[in-house]
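Why does residue order matter? Because the sequence determines the fold. Keep that principle in mind as you read this record.
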Amino acid sequence: MTRLNDVLKQKMRDPEFREAFEEFEQEFQIAEQLTALRKEKGYTQKELAKKAHTSQSAIARFESGQHKNLTLAFLHR
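Structure:
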């Protein structure tokens, strides 16, 4: 069975893939950090969404890396 890290290492040899990966890597790191912080504070996605004046589905999209057009305003909320 091929490990994910092995596949990623192979894909990173492709300059086009590497560029795309690096473009979104920072967003994924932010999403991971905020997800960890939410869990550390004991909030559910629904509770965080209420505090941020957004929907639970928006929080879920953000945490999964599927959020389009991530803005500082969204992060600030």
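The chain is about 75% helix and 0% strand.
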